[in-house]
Amino acid sequence: MTRTQPAKRRELILRSAVQQGLLEPDHAVLAGFIDLDGVLASITNLHRAFPASLNVMHTVAAKANCLVPVLEAFSRNGMGCEVASPGELAQALAAGFAPERIVYDSPSKTRAELAQALELGVAVNADNFQELERMDGILAGRASDSRIGVRINPQVGSGDIAAMSTATLTSKFGIALEDDGNRRRLIQEFQDRPWLTWLHAHVGSQGCPLELMAEGIAKTVALAEEINASLGRRQVVGIDIGGGLPVNFTGDDTAPTFDEYVERLRAYAPALFSGAYQIVTEFGRSLLAKNGYTAAYVEYTKTSGGRRIVITHAGAQVAARTVFMPDSWPIRITAHNPSGHLKEGATAPQDIAGPCCFAGDVVAQARSLPVLEPGDIVTLLDTGAYYFSTPFHYNSLPDPAVYAVHTNPDGEVKFDLVRRAESIQELLDRTGAHQL
Ligand SMILES: *Cc1c(COP(=O)(O)O)cnc(C)c1O
Q1: Atom 15 of ligand 1, residue of closest alpha carbon
Q2: Which of 282, 291, 383 to mutate for ligand 1's pocket (most ligand atoms within 8 Å of CB)?
Q3: Confidence at residue 31, expressed as pLDDT on a 0 to 100 scale
Q4: What is the CATH number of the domain that holds 422?
Q5: SS3 readout for the chain
C-alpha cells in the first residue's frame, strides 16, 4: 500500500501522540489535533491568491475553530477575525486581535452588543434595516471609529446543502436585495447615513459552487457602484466578501483552491479588483478543516444483524454535523493499531459508532476499513473546523483535549496543549452543581 505524504504525516503525529501519552486507553480516549504548520501554509495560500496591490484584510471566521490559542496563531500571522457573538468577540480580543482587525457579523446583535462593538472600534456589519436604525440611536450620542457596513442577501440561490446556503430567496441573513423596494431603500439608507461605508455578503458555505459565490459577490459590487453613482460620491469604500470556500472531504487534495476562487471572482466581479475598494474576507473551513483531525480509541466491537459495529469514543459530541446529516457531511476515517500505525490487512464494512446514547450516533455506516479491534484507534479526518473545537454537550461527555502540532526541521513532532480535556468538576460546574 502506498501512502500519501499527508497520510504519513498524520500517522507520525498519531504515533507521537500515543508515545507521549496524549492518547491513552483509560484516561485520554479522545483528542483533537490541529496542525499549525498546515494552518500557516493555508494562510500563505490565501494571502498569495489576492494581488498585493489591493488593500485586503483577511479575517478568520471564529466559529470555525474558536479555540483561543488557534485564533492567536491567526493573529500572529497577519490575519483579522470575524466574530458573531459576545463570546467570539471576547475570544478574538483574548487572542490578541486589535479591535480594528475584528469584524462583528451576527443577525441578532443586542443594543448592548452593538454599543460595545462601536465603543471598541470593531467593524460592524448590520444585518437588517432595524439594526441600522438601532445604530442611529447609539451613534447619535457618540462618534465611533468602527467601519460600518450592511449585509445584503444577493439571492443567487442554493448550493447542495440547504442548511449551509445563505443566499436563497428566503434566507434569514442580510437584506434581500431583489425584494420589492429594497434596492431603492438601501440607496436611501446610505444617503441618510454618511457613516455607512461598507457592503457585506456571505453567500454560503460548504456545498456552494464557486460560480454561485462569485455571482453573489458580483451583485454586491454592482450594488456598491450603483450606490456610489446615485449618491455622486464614493461613499461605499469597501466590500466584505465573506467566506464559504468549500472543502474537499473525499481526499487529501485542497480543492477548490483560493487561487481558483479569486480567478472566478475576477471574471464575475472585475470592479472588485480595480483598486477602488478595500476588501475583507472571512474564510473559516477552508483555512482549518484539512489541518485538523480527531483521534479516538475503539472500546468494543460486535456484530448485530450481520453488521460489524465498532464503538469508539468519537460520536455526535465532536462530529454533530456528520452524525445528524450523514449524507451532507461524510468524513474520511482511518484505522490504526494501538501504537498509532495505520492498520493493514483484511478490510470489512463496519459501522463506526460513537459513545452517545442514541441509535443514530454513527460517524460512518458500513465503511470498508481494516477490521478494528478493541484498543485500536480511529481518526476522523478534515475535522479542524466545526468539529472538536465546538463540542455538543450530549450525555455530559466532556470537551476533549486539543493539541497544536508543529514539526521541527529535524522532523520531530511537538505538541502544545490548546485546551485541556474538561474535568468532571468543570462539567459539574457548567451543569449547575454549585446551585445545590
Ligand atoms: C460562517 C461564516 C463565515 C465562514 O464560513 P466558512 O464556510 O467557514 O468559510 C464567514 N462569514 C460569515 C458571516 C459566516 O456566517
Answers
A1: 202
A2: 282
A3: 98
A4: 2.40.37.10
A5: CCCCHHHHHHHHHHHHHHHCCCCECCCECEEEEEEHHHHHHHHHHHHHHCCCCCCEEEEEEHHHCCCHHHHHHHHHCCCEEEECCHHHHHHHHHCCCCHHHEEEECCCCCHHHHHHHHHHCCEEEECCHHHHHHHHHHHHHCCCCCCEEEEEECCCCCCCCHHHECCCCCCCCCEECCCCCHHHHHHHHHHHCCCEEEEECCCECCCCCHHHHHHHHHHHHHHHHHHHHHHCCCCCCEEECCCCCCCCCCCCCCCCCHHHHHHHHHHHCHHHHCCCCEEEEEECHHHHHHHEEEEEEEEEEEEECCEEEEEECCCCCCCHHHHHCCCCCCCCEEEECCCCCECCCCEEEEEEECCCCCCCCEEEEEEEEECCCCCCEEEECCCCCCCCCCCCCHHHCCCCEEEEEEECCCCCEEEEEEECCCCHHHHHHHCCHHHC
Q: Does 182 fall in a domain?
A: yes
Ligand 1, residues at Cβ distance < 6 Å: 61, 63-64, 82, 105, 202, 205, 242-245, 282-286
Q: Are residues 325 and 224 in the same domain?
A: no
The reply to whether 217 and 139 lie within a common domain is yes
Domain count, the chain: 2
Can you tell me which atom of ligand 1 is nearest the CA of 200? 13
pLDDT of 90 higher than 90: yes
The range of the structural domain enclosing residue 84 comes to 36-288
- For 50-74, write each residue's pLDDT tens digit: 999 999 999 999 999 999 999 999 9
Identify which of 81, 82, 387 to mutate to test ligand 1's pocket (most ligand atoms within 8 A of the CB): 82
Taking the whole predicted model, whether its pTM rises above 0.90 is answered as: yes
How many whole angstroms from 124 Cα to the centroid of ligand 1? Answer: 15
**Spacing, Cα 332 to ligand 1 middle (Å):** 23
